[in-house]
Amino acid sequence: MRFNLILKIDNVAIRSASQIQPMSTKIKLGNRVFHLPRSRLVRLVVGLLLIVGGLFGFLPVLGFWMIPLGLLILSVDLAIVRRYRRRFEVWWGRRRESGNDNGDRTVGDSN
Predict the structure, then answer these.
(1) For the chain, how far is it from start to end, CA to CA, in angstroms?
(2) Among 50, 53, 45, 52, which residue's Cα sits nearest to residue 70?
(3) What is the pLDDT along the chain (111 residues), one digit of tens a residue?
(4) What is the pTM of this model?
(5) Of the candidates 62, 65, 69, the residue with the CA atom closest to the CA atom of residue 27
C-alpha cells in the first residue's frame, strides 16, 4: 500500500514537471529586451566567440564592443562572471547616485 502511494506522488510530480515550460533567457539593456538561446551550450559558445572576436577588435568588422557583450552572455550561465557583472552594476549605480547628490544642477534649474 505504501509503495503505491509513493508511485502516485512521483507520478504527479513527473506530470506537473512536464507541464512547466522552461524559462526563456533574456537580457534587458535599457528599454530593450534581447532573447538568448535556450541551450546553455549555445550561450556559452556564443559568449566565448564574442570574446575571442573582440580580442581582434583592431580588425575591420570585429570590434572591442564584442568583449563586454560576450561577458554579459556568459554571466547568464557562469557564476564567477555573474558575480563580477553584479559588482560592476552596484558600482555603476552608486557612482550615478553620488553624481546626482553633489549638487549638480542643470541649466535653468531654479532651486
Answers:
(1) 78
(2) 50
(3) 443 333 333 333 334 444 444 456 788 777 888 888 888 899 999 999 999 999 988 888 788 889 999 999 999 889 999 999 999 989 989 998 887 655 555 555 555
(4) 0.62
(5) 69
